[in-house]
Structure formats: structure tokens, C-alpha cells
């Protein structure tokens, strides 16, 4: 998973904003998320420069480090430069599935006895951009970096590996010490595979964080001008179909309003935006020659993430009372009703892995101030003259943090603040820049509640990375680990580890659903919405432009072109 950090992010200021986007431009809406077709039936021409508006500048390009958790960084650079054992694509029925990447000669061979073992045979023509072959040592080095490297974003699955045999340069044999059913997301997902011949013996983070020159994808990072742009150019030694474009420039435009103005003026040709009031005005005024795709079935989900180690939310009763003090359905309907999304999620996971989720886990948490009062008064809290509960001289007060400048999230916070004041909670809003929020505030636990989203970078149903106690960031582990809520429930660990370790799909699905119930019963966090995606592009952009719920909107950028 990736923390969803689309710059000043995400969608609309009012639910009508989304409705207007859905009604504007050409007729490429895809309610089922099946993907839009090419914006033109013409042959995609060779050459040209494409400028894309980017709503976030990543903190770094070290995808293995905690600074590398940016969805936009993953979409722009990782997907187009890092080799992967598997891609995630849609099959003929529109279902997301794993597909072996062209860097492999064939589908990897899985053995389950006496130990789980996976054999990857690397294609003869699979090379890095310096023409050095991709080898089994690259697999081994990648594994070693995740397990033994410093400041690692997520070690899930890699710690299950016992060894990587690289004796044959073109065959990597990965043996597991304990079973890991989601092995296809290893050496893929948000990481990919690293070039051992370049990085061995060096500091990975230093070599990668400001951009890197190696690639085994269709593009190479040509430049990264901080605060301005990221430029990709074709990889001359790419072993797959070569890009049509001469250059792709991602123009950093964290302000959505400015991004829409640039799109309207033709300064950028593609945007993946969150419409706001002035952007909606521009849409209403007419945007001729614009195509769109709107996807509701995404790998995204946004939640109110509670720090279970900080007062007042270190008390389960307070967390449960919080759940009965807010109207999640009303918030979601106001924000996304125009897309037909008018009910809050009742599970802390994305819809595309719903087979492993109890989608009704949080359904009992409805606005019920009587229930909230019963819980709080039974826990020793009493309302003061100002209507705010207090206990032992401490007011029932907390601060929420999210991405500064995100108008939709600011509206969400305002709605939440009003609801909670009526319920007897005092909530303060204190937002921060995305880099600070995701780079230090959340990992170091310097928050009581956060409003942000998760984005799947692989088809992995497990939530152990988010909720298992072993993944709590601490000073001792360099604040590595994605359990930013500091959740620590033994029964939850047990169920989530089954999801991450059992080869029995039925057992995994049952454990996933049981885990959802435990998360809800303990009120560890509260899900909000599935975050539909909106992709807009000029009709001058040719090729199969479409969104991918896992790999993002630029997963097939090599197939795009621009009209002369």
C-alpha cells in the first residue's frame, strides 16, 4: 500500500463539483472503472512532448525508504522506470489480475512443498538502460535491501523469504522460511527490482532520493527540478515496445485551481485532479476538446486514522463514542453524491479486494448521540456548561491533521468539526504540508487523528502492514513501519497474519473478515469513502489513455502520443 498523497489533494469542494465534472466534456465516463478507450482511432504518431499536471511533488525517489510513500512519485517515476516481476492489469471481464511482466521469460514456477519456493526465469533481452542484463543478483540485492536496509517503508512478505539463489544469473530461486500467499506482489508492487551492479556497496537512499539515472522501464528520469517539474525521456535500451513520445514533462502544480487554469489554457494536456469551486466554474464555462474517465471502483480508501496511543483516543470507549458522534454517510454524500457514492465505507480496505473484507464491519456506527453519551458518562466523562465533555479536569479535545491546501479535506474537517461540537467533542484543525505530514508527523506519532487515504499498489488483501503491532514505528526501529495508528490488538495480529501467510484462500478470506470485525469493535480507525478517480485529457493526446486502479493513470504512458 501507498499513502495517498496527491499533493493538495483529492477531489471536490462540494458534491456538486463531482457531478459537474461527470457531466462535462466528452462521453468517456466509465462508471464501472472498466477504462476509457483511445481518445482517437488514429495511429499514434511518433515524437513530441507531452506536459502533464502533477498535483504532488514526491519527497524523494527512494521507493524503499519511508520518504518514498508518495502515490504521485510512484505513478510518475516508479511505474515507468523500475522493472517488476508482475503488473496488475484488467482481464477481459474487467477484473484486476496479476500478469507476469515482460522482463520474465514465462510465468514464475510456484512450489509449496517441502517449503514454498518460487522460480523466476528472466528474459534474455531484459536489460537495464546501460545495457547490463537484469540478473538474479538484482532479485537477491532487492530482498537484502528490504530486510536489512535502513529506513524501509514496508518489509511485508520479504521477511518471509529465507534465501534467494542467484547462482544462475538468469534464474532467481526464492525460498521462503514461512508461507506467503501474496508472493506475486514481491519484487513488484510499490518497489520493483533494484540494479545490484549500480547500487551494491553504496547508500541506496543517497543514490536514489533525488532521482536516479538507471531504468529498466520504457522511460528514464531525465531531470527533476525541485518545485517545478519531473521530466522523462525514452529508455533507448528498453526491451519492450518503445515510447512514442520524445519527452514527458510532469509539471508540479499542487494548487488545483492553478492546475485547472493551466489545463484550460492548454499549458498542460492531462490532469488527474480534485475539482474545486473555481475549477467547476471553468468546467461550466465549457472545456471543448476534453476527454475524461471517472472510476468509482478504485484501489483507494480514505479514513479518519486515529492514533490509539495518544489521549484521549488511547481509551477504546472514547474511540467508540466518537464513532457514534459523527454521520459518515452525510459527509460522503455531500462530497461524492454526484458520482452515486452516498454511503460511507464500512471496512478499512479498498473495494478491489472486497472478497477478503467484511463490508459491513462498521455498519453499526451510525450517528447516535444517546449511545455516545451513555458510553462517555459510563466512562466517567461529564458535559460542561459549554457542552464539551471533560474528565479529571481534561476536556474531550483533540487535533486533526491532514494535507494543507486540500479544499475538499478542509471541508471534510469543517463538517466533522460541526458534528463533533454538537456531540460534545472539541476538535481543532492543524494541517501540514504533505511532505511533513507523511514524512515525519504520522510516522513519528505526532498526531491524534489524521485524515488521509491509502492507495493499493498491488492486489494484496492483507492489512497487517497497517494494523499489526510488529509494524508500529518507533525510535528504536528508525520509525519504520506503516502502523501509524499504533494499533496493538493481539487477536487482530493473529487474524491478519493468517491473511498474510495461509495458502488456503478460504481461510484467508475468513480471517480478513474476522480482522475487519476486530478493527471495528476496537474502533481503531473510521473509514470514510472509496475515493473515485477523475482523469481528464486533451483530445490531442492519442492512445489508450485510461486509469489503472493499482498502477495509476500513467501505467501505459509508453503507448500515448500527441497529435502534430
Keywords for this structure?
564 residues, alpha+beta, D-Maltodextrin-Binding Protein, domain 2, Dipeptide-binding Protein, domain 1, Dipeptide-binding Protein, domain 3, 3 domains, 24 strands, 20% strand, disordered N terminus
Task: Catalogue the unreliable spans.
Answer: 1-40
CATH H-level superfamily of the largest domain:
Dipeptide-binding Protein, Domain 3
What level of helicity do the residues show? 25-40%
The CATH architecture name of the largest domain reads Roll
Q: What fraction of residues sit in β-strands?
A: 15-25%
Q: How many strand elements?
A: 24
Shape: globular
What radius of gyration results from the CA coordinates? 23 Å
Number of domains: 3
| Straight-line N-to-C gap | 39 Å
Write the layout of secondary structure elements.
Blueprint: E1 2-4, H1 15-23, E2 49-54, H2 71-81, E3 86-90, E4 96-100, E5 109-111, E6 117-121, H3 136-148, E7 161-168, E8 171-176, H4 196-199, H5 204-208, E9 219-225, E10 229-234, E11 247-252, H6 256-264, E12 270-271, H7 277-285, E13 290-295, E14 300-306, H8 316-323, H9 328-336, H10 369-378, E15 382-383, E16 389-391, E17 394-395, E18 397-401, H11 407-423, E19 426-429, H12 434-441, E20 449-455, H13 464-467, H14 490-501, H15 505-521, E21 525-529, E22 533-538, E23 541-542, E24 561-562
Parallel strand pairs: 2-11, 18-19, 18-20
Antiparallel strand pairs: 1-20, 3-4, 5-6, 6-8, 7-8, 9-10, 10-11, 12-22, 13-22, 14-20, 14-21, 15-16, 16-17, 23-24
Helix pairs in contact: 1-9, 6-7, 8-10, 14-15
Amino acid at each position: 500500500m501507498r499513502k495517498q498523497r496527491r499533493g493538495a489533494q483529492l477531489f471536490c469542494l462540494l458534491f456538486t463539483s463531482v457531478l459537474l465534472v461527470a457531466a462535462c466534456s466528452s462521453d468517456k465516463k466509465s462508471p464501472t472503472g472498466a477504462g476509457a478507450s483511445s481518445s482517437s482511432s488514429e495511429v499514434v504518431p511518433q515524437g513530441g512532448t507531452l506536459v502533464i499536471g502533477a498535483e504532488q511533488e514526491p519527497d524523494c525517489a527512494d521507493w524503499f525508504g519511508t520518504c518514498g510513500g508518495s502515490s504521485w512519485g510512484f505513478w510518475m517515476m516508479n511505474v515507468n522506470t523500475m522493472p517488476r516481476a508482475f503488473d496488475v492489469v484488467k482481464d477481459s471481464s474487467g477484473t484486476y489480475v496479476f500478469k507476469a511482466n515482460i522482463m520474465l521469460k514465462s510465468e514464475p514456477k510456484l512450489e509449496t512443498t517441502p517449503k514454498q519456493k518460487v522460480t523466476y526465469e528472466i528474459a534474455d533481452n531484459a536489460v537495464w538502460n546501460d545495457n547490463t542484463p537484469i540478473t538474479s543478483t538484482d532479485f537477491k540485492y532487492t530482498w537484502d535491501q528490504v530486510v536489512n536496509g535502513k529506513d524501509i517503508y514496508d518489509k511485508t512478505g520479504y521477511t518471509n523469504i529465507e534465501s534467494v539463489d542467484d547462482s544462475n544469473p538468469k534464474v532467481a530461486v526464492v525460498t521462503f522460511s514461512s508461507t506467503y500467499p501474496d508472493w506475486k506482489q514481491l519484487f513488484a508492487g510499490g518497489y520493483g527490482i533494484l540494479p545490484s551492479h549500480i547500487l551494491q556497496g553504496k547508500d541506496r537512499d543517497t543514490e536514489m532520493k533525488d532521482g536516479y539515472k538507471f531504468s529498466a522501464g520504457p522511460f528514464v528520469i531525465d531531470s527533476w527540478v525541485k518545485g517545478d517539474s519531473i521530466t522523462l525521456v525514452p529508455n533507448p535500451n528498453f526491451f519492450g515496445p518503445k515510447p512514442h513520445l520524445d519527452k514527458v514533462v510532469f509539471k508540479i502544480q499542487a494548487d488545483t485551481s492553478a492546475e485547472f487554469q493551466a489545463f484550460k489554457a492548454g499549458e498542460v494536456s492531462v490532469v488527474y485532479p480534485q475539482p474545486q469551486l473555481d475549477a467547476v466554474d471553468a468546467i461550466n464555462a465549457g472545456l471543448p476538446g476534453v476527454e475524461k474517465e471517472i472510476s468509482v471502483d478504485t484501489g483507494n480508501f480514505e479514513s479518519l486514522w486515529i492514533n490509539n496511543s495518544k489521549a484521549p483516543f488511547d481509551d477504546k470507549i472514547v474511540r467508540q463514542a466518537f464513532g457514534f458522534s459523527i454521520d459518515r454517510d452525510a459527509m460522503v454524500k455531500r462530497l461524492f453524491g454526484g458520482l452515486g457514492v452516498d454511503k460511507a465505507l464500512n471496512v478499512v480496505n479498498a473495494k478491489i479486494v472486497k472478497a477478503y473484507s467484511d463490508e459491513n464491519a462498521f455498519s453499526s456506527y451510525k450517528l447516535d448521540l444517546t449511545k455516545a453519551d451513555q458510553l462517555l458518562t459510563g466512562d466517567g466523562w461529564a458535559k460542561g456548561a459549554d457542552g464539551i465533555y471533560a474528565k479529571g479536569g481534561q476536556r474531550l479535545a483533540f487535533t486533526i491533521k491532514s494535507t494543507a491546501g486540500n479544499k475538499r479535506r478542509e471541508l471534510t474537517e469543517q463538517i466533522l468539526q460541526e458534528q463533533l461540537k454538537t456531540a460534545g467533542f472539541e476538535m481543532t484543525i492543524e494541517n501540514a504540508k504533505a511532505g511533513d505530514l507523511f514524512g515525519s508527523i504520522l510516522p513519528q506519532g505526532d498526531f491524534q487523528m489524521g485524515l488521509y487515504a491509502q492507495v493499493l499498489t498491488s492486489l494484496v488483501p492483507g492489512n497487517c502492514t497497517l494494523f499489526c503491532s510488529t509494524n508500529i514505528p518507533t525510535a528504536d526501529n528508525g520509525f519504520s513501519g506503516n502502523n501509524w495508528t499504533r494499533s496493538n490488538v493481539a487477536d487482530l495480529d493473529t487474524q491478519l497474519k493468517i491473511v498474510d501467510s495461509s495458502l488456503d484462500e478460504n481461510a484467508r478470506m475468513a480471517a480478513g473478515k474476522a480482522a475487519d470485525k476486530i478493527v471495528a469493535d476496537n474502533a481503531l480507525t473510521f473509514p470514510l469513502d472509496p475515493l473515485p478517480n477523475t482523469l481528464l485529457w486533451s483530445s490531442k493526446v492519442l492512445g489508450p489513455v485510461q486509469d489503472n486502479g493499482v498502477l495509476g493513470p500513467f501505467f501505459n504512458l509508453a503507448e500515448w502520443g500527441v497529435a502534430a
